[in-house]
Automatic annotation (TrEMBL):
The keyword Oxidoreductase applies. It comes from the Bacteria. SUPFAM superfamilies: FMN-linked oxidoreductases. This is Alpha-hydroxy-acid oxidizing protein. PROSITE patterns: FMN_HYDROXY_ACID_DH_1 (PS00557), FMN_HYDROXY_ACID_DH_2 (PS51349). Its cofactor is FMN. The keyword Calcium does not apply. It comes from Nocardiopsis alba. Residues 19-388 form the FMN hydroxy acid dehydrogenase domain.
């Protein structure tokens, strides 16, 4: 059993010797530190969301509508607080994964390598974005545990190549994101004219792919602006005709667990499970795709009820603390992906910043679970109530 909670003891012990933490524990403070470091374009890319950003705001606010119900005298509560979870037959030390975030080179020069080192320190799996700045094979050399997130391109042969490469490189699961048939309307990016893909950023998995390269007349040049490779990337990035039939084809390409990310409706979740999908990630892309959409947390209970025990349900969008993780798991999530907080940690202090954010969240998860008298995996609807 991992004892993440002891981190708190170490912070207080160090402080008595005059060594105060150099990174903040409050999400907003960390975000403000990152704002000071990053240029306006990259910061807006990470912080910004679709339209008036009502969905992103709703994601965070939704957690305030749910109240945890601690019970200190529960029988066996003195042994509570185990953070371990089992996903697809594999045991993980915590319920946390890093959500897929692309184009990390605009945040920190070591991008996914720094992310992997920070996550390794806590046993947290990295969910690697298709739009990563580092190829999946290079990430596999650094990350102890990683899943691969697939943006299904317009070219099915390229999609197959991505999945087969990820499988061969040692990914533990494939996560298909289905809510990005095109980029959402993002005013912050528009006002800065900031789309890093136009500069060849976030294209490492494409430029190193044999199928992608076979479509080009010239060798792709990293960092090139509006080159042939960039234009081909832009034209093949998304598949607007994606359906459950397409996704079911992944079974021909890999024997890994397959999840679909971007689901906020019970009917869609049922269709996917009927098609044989192993897991659902309830998510609205952190509010980056559709403005005025349902908060992901509000969608979680109905998806959990619709799926039942036929597939694993995971969650992301709006998670800012360990208590948020506990709420999501009490509402039925088997594990939780967190995104923006660790990105700000990466911007401020590289791998150490990532580790700081993840360690802080996990310490709060364990402390909260102990005070609930529960192991994390045993949290249930009885442990949470919607506020009046």
């Amino acid at each position: 059993m991992s004892d993440y909670a002891r981190y708190q003891d170490g912070v207080y012990a160090d402080a008595t010797n005059g060594a105060l933490p150099h990174l903040p524990y409050d999400h907003d403070e960390l975000r403000d530190r990152a704002r000071e470091i990053l240029d306006p374009g990259p910061f807006g890319y990470v912080e910004g969301s679709a339209g008036r950003e009502r969905t992103a705001d709703a994601n965070v606010e939704a957690f305030s509508r749910y109240a945890l119900r601690p019970r200190g005298l529960r029988p066996g509560a003195e042994n509570a607080g185990d953070t371990g979870v089992t996903l697809f037959g594999e045991r993980y030390p915590s319920p946390l994964l890093t959500a897929p975030v692309g184009v990390l080179e605009q945040v920190h020069p070591e991008s996914e390598r720094a992310l992997a080192r920070g996550a390794n320190a806590l046993g947290v799996p990295v969910v690697l974005s298709t739009a990563a700045s580092t190829s999946m094979e290079e990430v596999a050399e650094v990350a102890d545990s990683w899943w691969y997130q697939l943006y299904w391109p317009g070219d099915d042969e390229l999609a197959e190549s991505f999945v087969r490469r990820a499988t061969a490189a040692g990914a533990r699961a494939i996560v298909v994101t289905t809510d990005t048939s095109r980029l959402g309307w993002r005013p912050r990016d528009l006002s800065q004219g900031h789309l890093p893909f136009l500069r060849g950023q976030g294209t490492a998995n494409y430029y190193g792919d044999p199928v992608f390269r076979s479509r080009l007349k010239e060798e792709p040049e990293p960092g090139g602006v509006l080159t042939e490779a960039v234009l081909h990337f832009l034209g093949s990035f998304s598949n607007r005709a994606l359906s459950t039939d397409n996704i079911a084809r992944i079974r021909e390409w890999t024997d890994l667990p397959v999840l679909v990310k971007g689901v906020v409706r019970a009917d869609e979740a049922e269709e996917l499970v009927d098609a044989g999908i192993d897991g659902i990630v309830v998510s609205n892309h952190g509010g980056r795709q559709v403005d005025a959409a349902v908060a992901a947390l509000d969608a979680l209970p109905e998806v959990v009820e619709a799926v039942g025990d036929r597939a694993e349900v995971l969650f992301d969008s709006g998670v800012r603390s360990g208590a948020d993780v506990v709420v999501a798991m009490a509402l039925g999530a088997k594990a939780v992906l967190v995104g923006r907080p660790w990105v700000y940690g990466l911007a401020v202090d590289g791998a150490a910043g990532v580790e700081h954010v993840l360690r802080s969240i996990l310490a709060e998860v364990q402390i909260t679970a102990e005070l609930m008298g529960r192991d994390v995996a045993d949290l249930s609807a009885d442990d949470v109530r919607r506020r009046p």
